[in-house]
Amino acid sequence: MKVKIHSLFEYLLETTTAAPEALVGLSISASPVLGDFLNDLDPALPLDWNGRDFRGLPELRGHVLRQAGLQTSCRLEDVLITAGAAEANYLALRQLLSPGDRIVLESPGWPQAKVIAKAIGVEVVRVARHEAEGWRLPLDRLADAATPGTRMIFITNPNNPTGDLLTAAEIADLVAIAERVGAWLLVDEVYAGLEWQGPRAPSVAGLYGRGITTGSVSKGLGLQGLRTGWMICPDPEMIMDAVILRENSSEIMNIMGETIAEIALRPDRYAAVMAKARAEGAANLAMINDWIARQPGLSWVSPKAGLIGLARLPDGIDSGAFARALLQDPYRTFLLPGEAYDQPGHIRLGVGGGGAVQLEKGLERLAAALATGVGRLA
Ligand SMILES: Cc1ncc(COP(=O)(O)O)c(C=O)c1O
């Protein structure tokens, strides 16, 4: 069956040309420019493929393991460089799942696993994260959902869109749940390294033979346009299956993505850039928390990690109508309505984007729209 559109992408397509003056809820850190890398780029670099390894540049794979704290528990061969975390997730989903299998997912969550699983003909079991429980992943309900025969559990940690973060003990419980039923456990870590409360969680690729960790340079480093990410898995057959599928789609990594990502992930540079991203994110988060406290009827569970969270609108406001009206004059401000995540009555707020997104201006306009009853149901 063909892959169907999900509502988040539908909204992005609908609003691509809206040209907002402010963005609230951008989900990536401020993006560097090419000039930031010129001193470290070799003008004689051949623009052929890397010519060394189908899994990706070995130095880059080394950095990937180091930033995840996996340099002693995983090997370079366990890392495959991909076109973003999106491709890593796709390769794993497509190669591991067959029609009639069962996958356990979180809701709300990143929509990719659901649409791909449905297209394959997989039974999708959704485990709800509830706002009243602080959007925590309910491990007891997840354990009940992961019945024998479950082929995969797919989780985002930090969670997109709520910013919830699992502890090391919860990751261990998750591994035990997967292990009990022999399921693959894919944890998408694109937001890792941006923790506001608590430490970065351990990566499952270092804990479980069927653990798959995916990530990328898109979020904390703001390098989304490089299309460079990774899959880490200690199972050689999984990595080879992913290489084989990739050979039949994009074939190889793009050399500029690999080369610039290798520079960006060099330990000293990575530490400095992430420290800046964390400082900017933390300052914006403090500003949003203060702002929300001043908005009658608006509330949220402040994200523990990552660049986004879901805020609950005052009763009686339609989030889709609200977001669409906010894009128009006099507000000209973009945000994602909660319906993009099956969470009507919510909007996605976020702390990414640096100065270019005009967050403060966006919040002022959002406050003005809320005060005048924009999006209120008749
Ligand atoms: C949870 C999650 N996974 C994967 C992706 C895709 O990211 P990438 O640019 O690394 O492909 C995103 C992008 O928003 C995301 O939020």
3D architecture notes:
This protein is an alpha/beta fold. It is 35% helix and 15% strand. The chain has two domains: 128 residues, Aspartate Aminotransferase, domain 1 (Alpha-Beta Complex), CATH 3.90.1150.10; 224 residues, Type I PLP-dependent aspartate aminotransferase-like (Major domain) (Aspartate Aminotransferase, domain 2), CATH 3.40.640. The protein has eleven helices and 13 strands. The protein has a seven-stranded mixed sheet with strand order 2-8-7-6-5-3-4, with helices on both faces. A four-stranded antiparallel sheet has the order 9-10-13-12. The chain has a two-stranded parallel ribbon with strand order 1-11. Helix 4 links the parallel strand 3 and strand 4. The longest helix is centred in the C-terminal third of the chain and has 27 residues. It is globular. The two termini are 40 Å apart. It binds pyridoxal-5'-phosphate (PLP). The site of pyridoxal-5'-phosphate (PLP) has 13 residues, from helix 3.
